[in-house]
UniProtKB/TrEMBL annotation:
Biological source species: Chryseobacterium taiwanense
Signal sequence segment: none
PROSITE patterns, alphabetized: VOC
Record domain VOC: where: 6-123
Domain of life, source organism: Bacteria
Residues passing through the membrane, by range: none
Protein name: Glyoxalase
Length: 127
């Protein structure tokens, strides 16, 4: 079973997410919104399929990265999140929540061996 297919997002804490968005827009040309920016790309195996990787600064007091204490969180793109979760349960990986489904995909959070929170994302077909 193919597990991770790519990086879905890079999220980090900062003092002022709006100012950080503006800095990256001004100095590096990011097309930012209040949610950061999305980088679009094409799948190597099927260039007709488009994908995205999200980049987003979060407030330094965000609770979204908890229980991890790191200043960052990485989102990994996966295939078949339900099957992957069954494998991870058998491997005694810490699973923090239940699968949440939105119109842009399914998400769940786990911890790695050092307590870093990881977000797993199975994008919908149209992403």
């Amino acid at each position: 079973m193919k597990k991770v297919t790519g990086i879905g997002g890079i999220f980090f804490k900062c003092k002022d997410p709006n100012a950080m968005n503006e800095w990256y827009k001004t100095h590096l040309g990011f097309n930012t919104s209040p949610y950061g920016t999305s980088f679009e790309w094409r799948e190597e195996e099927d260039p007709s399929k488009k994908g995205t990787t999200q980049w987003a600064p979060f407030s330094e007091d965000t609770k979204y990265f908890e229980p991890a204490t790191k200043e960052f969180m990485i989102n990994y793109r996966v295939e078949n999140l339900e099957a992957l979760m069954e494998e991870l349960k058998k491997e005694n990986v810490t699973i923090l929540d239940e699968i949440q489904t939105y119109d842009y995909g399914k998400f769940i959070h786990i911890l790695d061996m050092e307590g870093n929170k990881i977000e797993l994302w199975e994008p919908t077909e149209h992403d």
